[in-house]
Amino acid sequence: MADISSLGDLRGKRVLVRSDLNVPLDGTTITDDGRIRASVPTITALSEAGARVVVCAHLGRPKGEPEAKYSLRPVSTRLAELLGRPVTFADDTVGPSARAAVQAMADGDVVLLENLRFNAGETAKADEDRAAFADDLASLADAFVSDGFGVVHRKQASVYDVATRLPSAMGGLVHDEVEVLKRLTENPERPYVVVLGGAKVADKLAVIDNLMGTADRLLIGGGMLFTFLAAQGHEIGTSLFDADSVEACKGYLARAQESGVEIVLPVDIVVGKEFSADTATDVVDADAIPADAMGLDIGPRSAELYASRLADARTVFWNGPMGAFEMEPFAAGTEALARALVAATEAGALTVVGGGDSAAAVRQLGFRDEQFGHISTGGGASLEYLEGKSLPGITILSD
Ligand SMILES: Nc1ncnc2c1ncn2[C@@H]1O[C@H](COP(=O)(O)OP(=O)(O)OP(=O)(O)O)[C@@H](O)[C@H]1O
Ligand SMILES: O=C(O)[C@H](O)COP(=O)(O)O
């Protein structure tokens, strides 16, 4: 697949780079800058080659119009610090501010555009509804570099459509991520264990179907576990839950039994009255969640069970925290899981942690990147890659 060198001499060329700068924020404070760090090498390489680097990215899931809490401005400040050079922040994505900023660029300069998702055209489902925004974005540049691995599974204007409008290349981050994930899809050493958690419940439940064809064991935690408990007929109180996926979960449980894939669910749950660090907590059996309680972490017996199911693994992929780890009372399950993964790595297994929040979780809990085989910047993207799905942001580069 074409890398940056395929774009020829970049001096004076305006290059639009799609990065994934979707970092966790506490107000305007970045709580984990891993994705920004991962984006630095490609931006630096382009800038050093004399390109005028126009970086575009999203933050969170705003609904097609500006929302102050999703502004990329704090990211711009951190990006400049990490690059060691100024970054001009445009207050809009393709409007007057963006145009003026790009117009004023000298060779090697870096501009960051405001959140792509402040424009409805970025995420519109129908191709024709993304076209005008894609045209506007493409008009800011002479070439396009796709470097946001975390979004390559999205058929969105900045990921997919711009590549049909400009000479395009794959950035080093996307290339490197794919090389690691290939090792998980091409004949992984067994047992191959996939651990799933997190909050994007509907997105992630959908991947289980395909993972059952490749993984030997699936350990389920985080927000998605409650849809499984509901499928087993248990009370789940006010826990996160995807009603539309209950039937699918029943099907997964039945299929797992037939096919010999092990689906491991928690045996105990840490519950709170509400989604808050100060709420009163309790540990209850997984089939005895009170109707007025919310499940916010896997319990200590479950953490032990999951560690035991990871002990003999030769390949592990983990996406999604086991609980609401940002709040101290609900971090123990994720911490125990991370410890089990470190042990598996030390025992020689290939371990990959995927996802913005999962990576943030392990770092926030004091683990170092080197303690795992690989920390991927993509959550949903890496899962869809493992499922064997074709990823729009990658296939469009080879067309
Ligand atoms: N039981 C739970 N109830 C509510 N939220 C939960 C629960 N368990 C985990 N979470 C939340 O899940 C979030 C992370 O989920 P997400 O699916 O976004 O992970 P990710 O795949 O690592 O990230 P990304 O999709 O950004 O790459 C965390 O903010 C955490 O608080
Ligand atoms: O956080 C992620 O996984 C990526 O940045 C993609 O975000 P999305 O799931 O909102 O498209």
UniProtKB/TrEMBL annotation:
Keywords recorded for this protein, A-Z: ATP-binding, Cytoplasm, Glycolysis, Kinase, Nucleotide-binding, Transferase
Q: Name one Pfam family in it.
A: PGK
Q: Name one GO cellular component term.
A: cytosol
Please list which residues make up the signal peptide. Answer: none
Q: What class of enzyme is it?
A: transferase
Chain sites annotated for binding substrate: D20, L21, N22, R35, H58, L59, G60, R61, R117, R154
Where does it reside?
Answer: Cytoplasm
Chain sites annotated for binding (2R)-3-phosphoglycerate: R35, R117, R154
User: Which pathway does this polypeptide act in?
Assistant: Carbohydrate degradation; glycolysis; pyruvate from D-glyceraldehyde 3-phosphate: step 2/5
Record Gene3D superfamilies = Phosphoglycerate kinase, N-terminal domain
GO MF annotation: an example: ADP binding
Q: What is its EC number?
A: 2.7.2.3
- Enumerate the catalysed reactions: (2R)-3-phosphoglycerate + ATP = (2R)-3-phospho-glyceroyl phosphate + ADP
- Residue positions annotated to bind ATP are K204, G295, E326, G355, G356, D357, S358
Family as reported in the entry's similarity comment: Belongs to the phosphoglycerate kinase family.
HAMAP family hit by this protein:
Phosphoglyc_kinase
Protein name, entry field = Phosphoglycerate kinase
Q: Organism classification, top ranks?
A: Bacteria, Bacillati, Actinomycetota, Actinomycetes, Micrococcales
Q: Which gene is the coding source of this polypeptide chain?
A: pgk
